[in-house]
Design brief:
single chain; alpha/beta; 4-stranded antiparallel beta sheet; 10 helices; 37% helix
Protein backbone atom coordinates (compact mmCIF):
# COMPACT_ATOMS: atom_id res chain seq x y z
CA UNK A 1 0.00 0.00 0.00
CA UNK A 2 1.31 3.45 -0.87
CA UNK A 3 0.40 6.11 1.66
CA UNK A 4 1.78 8.82 -0.64
CA UNK A 5 2.37 8.77 -4.38
CA UNK A 6 3.53 11.93 -6.14
CA UNK A 7 3.32 12.00 -9.92
CA UNK A 8 4.73 14.72 -12.17
CA UNK A 9 4.70 17.43 -9.52
CA UNK A 10 5.64 20.85 -10.87
CA UNK A 11 5.80 23.99 -8.73
CA UNK A 12 6.56 27.49 -9.97
CA UNK A 13 7.33 30.80 -8.29
CA UNK A 14 6.26 33.26 -10.95
CA UNK A 15 8.33 32.39 -14.03
CA UNK A 16 10.80 30.28 -12.06
CA UNK A 17 10.18 26.54 -11.95
CA UNK A 18 11.23 25.17 -8.56
CA UNK A 19 10.15 21.55 -9.10
CA UNK A 20 10.25 19.83 -12.48
CA UNK A 21 7.96 16.84 -13.01
CA UNK A 22 8.85 15.31 -9.62
CA UNK A 23 7.64 11.80 -8.80
CA UNK A 24 8.16 9.85 -5.59
CA UNK A 25 6.34 7.51 -3.25
CA UNK A 26 6.26 6.78 0.45
CA UNK A 27 4.90 3.36 1.34
CA UNK A 28 3.10 2.71 4.58
CA UNK A 29 5.40 2.04 7.51
CA UNK A 30 8.52 3.24 5.69
CA UNK A 31 10.93 6.11 6.26
CA UNK A 32 11.85 7.83 3.01
CA UNK A 33 14.54 10.50 2.87
CA UNK A 34 14.81 13.37 0.40
CA UNK A 35 18.31 14.81 0.32
CA UNK A 36 19.85 17.63 -1.64
CA UNK A 37 21.76 20.89 -1.38
CA UNK A 38 20.30 24.23 -0.33
CA UNK A 39 17.93 25.47 -3.02
CA UNK A 40 17.36 22.01 -4.52
CA UNK A 41 13.62 22.21 -3.86
CA UNK A 42 13.28 20.05 -0.75
CA UNK A 43 11.22 22.48 1.34
CA UNK A 44 9.16 23.44 -1.72
CA UNK A 45 8.29 19.76 -2.09
CA UNK A 46 7.15 19.51 1.51
CA UNK A 47 5.09 22.68 1.31
CA UNK A 48 3.37 21.49 -1.85
CA UNK A 49 2.56 18.12 -0.29
CA UNK A 50 0.96 19.69 2.78
CA UNK A 51 -1.06 22.26 0.82
CA UNK A 52 0.97 25.34 1.66
CA UNK A 53 1.90 25.78 -2.01
CA UNK A 54 -0.36 25.15 -4.99
CA UNK A 55 1.28 22.99 -7.67
CA UNK A 56 1.26 24.09 -11.30
CA UNK A 57 0.87 20.47 -12.42
CA UNK A 58 0.96 16.90 -11.18
CA UNK A 59 -0.88 14.66 -8.76
CA UNK A 60 -0.42 14.14 -5.02
CA UNK A 61 -2.17 10.90 -4.08
CA UNK A 62 -2.71 10.46 -0.36
CA UNK A 63 -4.17 6.99 0.19
CA UNK A 64 -5.57 7.20 -3.32
CA UNK A 65 -7.15 10.67 -3.09
CA UNK A 66 -5.61 13.32 -5.33
CA UNK A 67 -5.07 16.23 -2.93
CA UNK A 68 -3.05 18.46 -5.27
CA UNK A 69 -4.33 22.01 -4.83
CA UNK A 70 -6.36 21.22 -1.73
CA UNK A 71 -6.11 23.69 1.17
CA UNK A 72 -3.82 22.62 3.98
CA UNK A 73 -6.58 21.96 6.52
CA UNK A 74 -8.29 19.45 4.21
CA UNK A 75 -5.03 17.58 3.67
CA UNK A 76 -4.38 17.59 7.42
CA UNK A 77 -7.81 16.05 7.95
CA UNK A 78 -6.62 13.01 5.96
CA UNK A 79 -3.82 12.44 8.47
CA UNK A 80 -0.83 14.30 7.04
CA UNK A 81 1.20 16.28 9.56
CA UNK A 82 4.02 18.63 8.57
CA UNK A 83 6.84 19.61 10.93
CA UNK A 84 8.18 22.62 9.02
CA UNK A 85 11.69 23.89 8.58
CA UNK A 86 12.46 26.26 11.44
CA UNK A 87 9.92 24.52 13.72
CA UNK A 88 7.36 27.38 13.65
CA UNK A 89 6.06 26.76 17.12
CA UNK A 90 3.88 29.38 18.79
CA UNK A 91 6.53 31.13 20.85
CA UNK A 92 4.07 33.14 22.97
CA UNK A 93 2.07 30.07 24.01
CA UNK A 94 3.03 27.48 26.60
CA UNK A 95 4.29 24.02 25.77
CA UNK A 96 0.93 22.58 26.80
CA UNK A 97 -0.97 25.03 24.59
CA UNK A 98 1.22 24.21 21.60
CA UNK A 99 0.54 20.51 22.09
CA UNK A 100 -3.18 21.06 22.46
CA UNK A 101 -3.25 22.89 19.12
CA UNK A 102 -1.81 19.78 17.50
CA UNK A 103 -4.94 17.84 18.44
CA UNK A 104 -7.46 20.33 17.01
CA UNK A 105 -9.02 17.72 14.70
CA UNK A 106 -9.60 15.11 17.41
CA UNK A 107 -11.82 14.78 20.48
CA UNK A 108 -10.85 15.45 24.07
CA UNK A 109 -10.46 11.78 24.98
CA UNK A 110 -8.10 11.11 22.09
CA UNK A 111 -6.18 14.33 22.82
CA UNK A 112 -5.61 13.33 26.46
CA UNK A 113 -4.31 9.91 25.43
CA UNK A 114 -2.06 11.34 22.74
CA UNK A 115 -0.66 13.98 25.08
CA UNK A 116 0.23 11.28 27.58
CA UNK A 117 2.06 9.37 24.84
CA UNK A 118 3.89 12.48 23.64
CA UNK A 119 5.02 13.44 27.14
CA UNK A 120 6.24 9.90 27.75
CA UNK A 121 8.28 10.15 24.56
CA UNK A 122 9.57 13.64 25.39
CA UNK A 123 10.21 13.88 29.16
CA UNK A 124 11.75 17.34 28.70
CA UNK A 125 8.36 18.64 27.55
CA UNK A 126 6.64 17.08 30.53
CA UNK A 127 8.86 19.16 32.79
CA UNK A 128 8.05 22.37 30.89
CA UNK A 129 4.31 22.28 30.23
CA UNK A 130 3.72 25.73 31.68
CA UNK A 131 6.81 27.30 30.10
CA UNK A 132 6.54 29.64 27.13
CA UNK A 133 7.67 27.69 24.10
CA UNK A 134 9.80 30.55 22.82
CA UNK A 135 11.97 30.46 25.93
CA UNK A 136 13.16 26.90 25.33
CA UNK A 137 16.34 25.84 23.54
CA UNK A 138 16.28 25.04 19.84
CA UNK A 139 16.45 21.31 20.49
CA UNK A 140 13.56 21.45 22.94
CA UNK A 141 11.54 23.49 20.46
CA UNK A 142 12.18 20.86 17.80
CA UNK A 143 10.93 18.18 20.18
CA UNK A 144 7.85 20.29 20.76
CA UNK A 145 7.27 20.68 17.01
CA UNK A 146 7.46 16.91 16.53
CA UNK A 147 5.31 16.31 19.60
CA UNK A 148 2.70 18.75 18.33
CA UNK A 149 2.55 16.84 15.03
CA UNK A 150 2.21 13.52 16.84
CA UNK A 151 -0.77 14.95 18.73
CA UNK A 152 -2.63 14.61 15.42
CA UNK A 153 -2.00 10.83 15.25
CA UNK A 154 -0.50 11.23 11.77
CA UNK A 155 -0.84 8.63 9.06
CA UNK A 156 2.04 10.40 7.30
CA UNK A 157 4.61 12.61 9.01
CA UNK A 158 6.64 15.15 7.04
CA UNK A 159 9.84 16.21 8.80
CA UNK A 160 11.60 19.17 7.18
CA UNK A 161 15.20 19.69 8.34
CA UNK A 162 14.65 18.51 11.94
CA UNK A 163 18.33 18.84 12.85
CA UNK A 164 18.83 22.36 11.44
CA UNK A 165 20.67 24.67 13.80
CA UNK A 166 20.86 22.17 16.65
CA UNK A 167 23.81 21.26 18.84
CA UNK A 168 25.31 17.79 18.20
CA UNK A 169 23.75 16.29 21.33
CA UNK A 170 20.27 17.39 20.27
CA UNK A 171 20.88 16.12 16.73
CA UNK A 172 21.60 12.69 18.19
CA UNK A 173 18.41 12.88 20.26
CA UNK A 174 16.27 13.94 17.30
CA UNK A 175 17.53 11.09 15.14
CA UNK A 176 17.05 8.65 18.00
CA UNK A 177 13.42 9.82 18.09
CA UNK A 178 13.07 9.30 14.32
CA UNK A 179 14.58 5.82 14.66
CA UNK A 180 12.08 5.02 17.43
CA UNK A 181 9.19 6.21 15.25
CA UNK A 182 10.50 3.97 12.47
CA UNK A 183 10.53 0.95 14.79
CA UNK A 184 6.90 1.70 15.62
CA UNK A 185 6.01 1.48 11.95
CA UNK A 186 5.35 5.18 11.38
CA UNK A 187 5.28 6.49 7.82
CA UNK A 188 7.73 9.37 7.42
CA UNK A 189 9.07 11.58 4.64
CA UNK A 190 12.29 13.14 5.91
CA UNK A 191 14.02 16.15 4.37
CA UNK A 192 17.44 16.61 5.86
CA UNK A 193 20.75 18.23 4.96
CA UNK A 194 22.57 15.86 7.31
CA UNK A 195 22.61 13.26 4.55
CA UNK A 196 24.64 10.71 6.47
CA UNK A 197 22.17 10.58 9.37
CA UNK A 198 19.18 10.71 7.02
CA UNK A 199 20.39 7.79 4.91
CA UNK A 200 21.22 5.78 8.00
CA UNK A 201 17.67 5.99 9.36
CA UNK A 202 15.80 5.78 6.03
CA UNK A 203 14.58 2.73 4.13
CA UNK A 204 14.54 4.47 0.76
CA UNK A 205 16.01 7.72 -0.52
CA UNK A 206 15.69 10.27 -3.30
CA UNK A 207 18.36 12.78 -4.31
CA UNK A 208 17.00 16.13 -5.48
CA UNK A 209 19.08 18.55 -7.53
CA UNK A 210 17.74 21.81 -9.00
CA UNK A 211 14.16 20.66 -8.65
CA UNK A 212 14.66 17.25 -10.25
CA UNK A 213 15.07 13.75 -8.83
CA UNK A 214 18.46 12.57 -10.11
CA UNK A 215 18.83 9.34 -8.13
CA UNK A 216 16.65 7.05 -6.06
CA UNK A 217 16.92 3.65 -4.44
CA UNK A 218 17.30 1.83 -1.13
CA UNK A 219 18.98 4.19 1.32
CA UNK A 220 22.01 1.95 1.80
CA UNK A 221 22.53 1.79 -1.98
CA UNK A 222 22.21 5.56 -2.38
CA UNK A 223 24.68 6.09 0.48
CA UNK A 224 27.31 4.07 -1.42
CA UNK A 225 26.84 5.89 -4.70
CA UNK A 226 30.16 7.66 -5.46
CA UNK A 227 28.47 10.91 -6.57
CA UNK A 228 26.32 11.02 -3.42
CA UNK A 229 29.32 10.25 -1.23
CA UNK A 230 31.33 13.03 -2.83
CA UNK A 231 28.59 15.64 -2.79
CA UNK A 232 26.79 14.95 0.50
CA UNK A 233 28.80 12.56 2.68
CA UNK A 234 32.23 14.09 2.49
CA UNK A 235 33.58 11.04 0.72
Amino acid sequence: MSTLAVEGLTVRYGRTTALHDLSLRVDEGRVVSLIGANGAGKTTTMRALSGLLRPAAGRILLDGADVAGWPAHRIAALGLRHVPEGRQIFAGLTVAENLDLGAWLGGKTAAARLKEEVLERFPRLSERLGQLAGSMSGGEQQMLAIGRALMGAPALLLLDEPSMGLAPLFIEEIFAIIAALKREGRTILLVEQNASAALEVADFAYVLEQGRIVLSGPAATVAHDPAVAAAYLGG
